[in-house]
Amino acid sequence: MWNIPRILVNKILAHAQREFPRECVGVLSGSARRVTGWHPLSNVAKEDRRFLADPTGQIRLFEQLRQEGVEVVAIYHSHPFGPSVPSALDLEEAYHPDILNLIVSLDTAGRLDMNGYLMRNGVAEIQEVTVSD
User: Fold this and answer.
1) Which of these, 66, 91, 56, 65, lies nearest to 77 by C-alpha position?
2) What rounded mean pLDDT belongs to the chain?
3) Which segments of the chain are extended strands (E)?
4) Which residues contact 28 (CB under 8 A, 6 or more apart)?
């Protein structure tokens, strides 16, 4: 089970809403399966319905977290017009098999639609994600 504080979930949702209609992308940090930090990244993908984290920003962030002794716990992105399930492209480009992939959908009727997955070899295994106060 993965635990994400509500304040960080709110930041992810706000990031997704700011980037609409483009997908947002970011990283959550912490230790083991406990998330303590939120790190939005710039989406440099040319298409709206795709995400590609700015490579320079991502490398800089990963180096900073490593120096601080903090792990990358999750990579998140949004689906502005679809459900919070991995697309074929998400599965194809899942380069971190041991890091939670968190997908938040904005195609909802005012309720939180966010799911987490471990993606390995083109298969998405859903993970239990709880939101804590």
Assistant:
1) 91
2) 93
3) 2-5, 25-31, 34-41, 71-79, 100-105, 114-120, 123-127, 129-132
4) 4, 8, 35, 37, 38, 39, 72, 73, 74, 75, 76, 100, 102
Q: What is the DSSP letter of 46?
A: S
Catalytic residue among 19, 23, 63, 68: 23
Query: For position 107, what pLDDT does the model report?
Result: 86
Please give the structure tokens belonging to residue 128.
């239990």
Rounded CA separation 20/7 (Å): 20
Q: Quick: pLDDT tens for 53-107.
A: 999 999 999 999 999 999 999 999 999 999 999 999 999 999 888 899 999 999 8
| Full-model pTM | 0.93
23 has catalytic annotation: yes
Structure tokens, 132: 């804590």
Nearest-angstrom CA–CA distance, 72 and 97:
12
